[in-house]
Amino acid sequence: MKFVKREINLEEDMVVVDKPEEWTSHDVVAKVRGEIREKYGEKVKVGHGGTLDPFATGVLLILIGKMVKRFEEIKDWDKEYVMEVRLGVATDTGDRTGKKVKTTEAGEVKKQAVEKVLKSFEGEYLQKVPRYAAVKVKGVRMYKLAREGKKIKQPKRRVKIKEIELLRLQGLSLKVRVVCGSGTYMRQLAVDIGEKLGLAAHAKELRRTRVGDYR
After folding, report:
1. 4, 16, 151, 167 - which has most CB atoms within 10 Å?
2. What residues have CB less than 8 Å from 127, skipping those under 6 apart?
3. Would you please indicate which residues are annotated as catalytic (active-site) residues?
4. Model pTM?
């Protein structure tokens, strides 16, 4: 698999990568760095414009050379996702990679009820940071504390959902399109959608389709 498929400006450039499943954002950065070194025989600074979870796919902006210094600006660009939410089952990570921690019985989930719940998220809302997140609590990353089985008071962040729409509802699976601001945890949004429907939930599939103007 090759990520760099065109000529690169080693001084300042940005590559749009469709991140595969199971790759971390750091894995992609390391691979691009290696590809550039192999092709041009030079070592350059390489970074990314905002993390994607390993189970997620889609747009990952790879920053090269001086572009790395624009990270703070780029990470704040709007992002668009398509996410499949699985209702009735909760996991410890909030996505399909985690351990099942809760199930809830569910009858027929009504489209009208789902659309009303989704509409309620538009605008700003206070979102819990997932237990398995890279955010530090007292100097230690939350995912490390979670893996050690320690109880953590999850901090909250004010996030912005600019658009959210139902694309498909099939049994206990719903597919949504979301446009959001920086810092929004999509797997936590999946959990929160379920909570408002009175059901356990997790993010089964997640694809980032846009960052800023890059698709």
Report:
1. 4
2. 156, 157, 158, 159, 184, 185, 188, 189, 192
3. 53
4. 0.92
